[in-house]
């Protein structure tokens, strides 16, 4: 059975976003995140949402893959909306009231604002791993951290650990999805009963999931040792990443534009 691509996995497609230097994409993600937390109204979110839609369209990543990460934070989105929408003040002009609890327009608007911000953050940042290979991402992080090596900071090792951690997220999601499908075929019911019953139903998923993760980590360590990996000292690269004029232009223009949106809107 074919397991669908999970969020965060690299999508091998020819596009202008894929061809950008990984350091440029890291800088754009940082600028996008800063701008996203600077805006304080829906006009700003709308502008950043339009930028996100344009980035996904230019990257040519299928939308079903680009927005798949939102599914993993649905509980957080629902919790955020409820926390901001609910009111316990009897004097509140409520849209809906159930006993002492009510929902007013101001709280609902605030909840929708933060939910939209989280969705844009997930979709926008996931483009980094969707359009960048692990090797490119590791090299970019290592180069950005390299100035700290003069102070004894292990830039190469930290870059490798961060990249492995990022890549284990989609791997873990895919592994969990396969186990859930297998357990469902064996009669498990994950959507029946109360909250406690549903939590207990996931125990047969968590145990094999962690066993597989530890086995995968051990296999990865063995493979790295077999290839004589000893950290970033003295390593060479088959294809050194060099930022060209186009990369610098995209980084400067897009970063300035994103920060301007955050300041003005």
Report on this model:
This protein has 265 residues and is mainly alpha-helical. The chain has one domain. 68% of the residues lie in helices and 3% in strands. The chain contains twelve helices and three strands; from the N terminus they run ααααααβββαααααα. Strands 1-3-2 form a three-stranded antiparallel sheet. β2 (96-98) and β3 (101-103) form a beta hairpin. α2 packs parallel to α12 (245-264). The chain starts with 15 loop residues before the first helix and ends with a helix. The model is unreliable at 1-5 (pLDDT under 50).
**Number of domain units:** 1
Low-confidence stretches: 1-5
Query: Radius of gyration, rounded?
Result: 22 Å
Distance between the termini: 47 Å
Order of strands, widest sheet: 1-3-2
Brief overview:
With 265 residues, the protein is mostly helical.
How are the SSEs placed, and which strands pair?
Blueprint: H1 16-19, H2 22-38, H3 42-59, H4 63-66, H5 68-72, H6 74-85, E1 86-87, E2 96-98, E3 101-103, H7 105-130, H8 134-145, H9 155-185, H10 195-201, H11 203-226, H12 245-264
Antiparallel strand pairs: 1-3, 2-3
Helix pairs in contact: 2-7, 2-12, 3-7, 6-7, 8-9, 9-11
Key terms for this structure?
265 residues; 3% strand; globular
């Amino acid at each position: 059975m074919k397991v669908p691509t999970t969020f965060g996995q690299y999508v091998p497609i020819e596009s202008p976003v894929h061809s950008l230097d990984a350091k440029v994409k890291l800088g754009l993600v940082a600028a996008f995140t800063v701008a996203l937390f600077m805006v304080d109204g829906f006009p700003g979110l709308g502008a950043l949402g339009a930028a996100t839609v344009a980035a996904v369209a230019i990257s040519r990543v299928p939308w079903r893959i680009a927005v798949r990460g939102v599914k993993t934070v649905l509980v957080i989105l629902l919790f955020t909306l409820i926390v901001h929408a609910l009111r316990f003040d009897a004097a509140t002009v409520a849209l809906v009231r159930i006993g002492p609890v009510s929902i007013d327009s101001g709280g609902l608007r605030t909840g929708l604002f933060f939910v939209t911000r989280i969705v844009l953050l997930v979709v926008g940042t996931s483009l980094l791993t969707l359009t960048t290979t692990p090797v490119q991402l590791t090299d970019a992080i290592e180069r950005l951290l390299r100035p700290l090596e003069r102070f004894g900071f292990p830039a190469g090792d930290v870059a490798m650990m961060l990249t492995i951690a990022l890549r284990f997220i989609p791997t873990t999601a895919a592994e969990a999805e396969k186990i859930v499908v297998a357990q469902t075929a064996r009669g498990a019911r994950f959507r029946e009963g109360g909250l406690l019953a549903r939590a207990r139903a996931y125990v047969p998923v968590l145990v094999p999931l962690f066993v597989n993760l530890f086995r995968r980590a051990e296999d990865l360590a063995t493979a790295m040792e077999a290839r004589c990996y000893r950290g970033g000292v003295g390593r060479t690269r088959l294809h050194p990443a060099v930022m060209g004029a186009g990369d610098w232009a995209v980084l400067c223009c897009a970063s300035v534009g994103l920060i301007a949106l955050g300041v003005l809107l």
